Amino acid sequence: QDAEIVRTRDPELLARCDVVVDVGGEYDPGRHRYDHHQRSFTESMRSLRPDKPWSTKLSSAGLVYCHFGSQILAGLLGQPEDGPVVTALYDKLYENFVEEVDAMDNGIAPAAGEPRYALSTTLSARVAHLNPRWNDPDQDTEVG
């Protein structure tokens, strides 16, 4: 709750951060580094949690969810982390929300071959609309 959010790609600043997500080119949960942008990265929910069926390559969002989702849900719900309510909600949230984020971020198409319909309101598209246009002279992403 008292965390400071730092947006940077500067390796010196990243080295001083307690948690690094989606930058830094490193996946090391022991050091709280959750990036999926290295060529060697192939982790899925199933590879990290063999009790789960999903094989979609994880994004940084999926990595954070994989490692902390149950704990956060348990805290919010006041339920045991390994209880049936948290387990069911964790699985449903991944299957119906986070997996799409993982797939979109990794460029995985929603269907093989020709899609049957256009996805125009994905979470990724909505977030992209918040960013400045590529040719906007003011590229400050902090301006609201």
Automatic annotation (TrEMBL):
Identify the GO cellular component terms for this protein.
cytoplasm; nucleus
What are the transmembrane regions? none
State a single Pfam family of this protein.
MYG1_exonuc
Q: Which family does it belong to?
A: Belongs to the MYG1 family.
What is the protein's name according to its record?
MYG1 protein
The organism named in the record is Picathartes gymnocephalus (White-necked rockfowl)
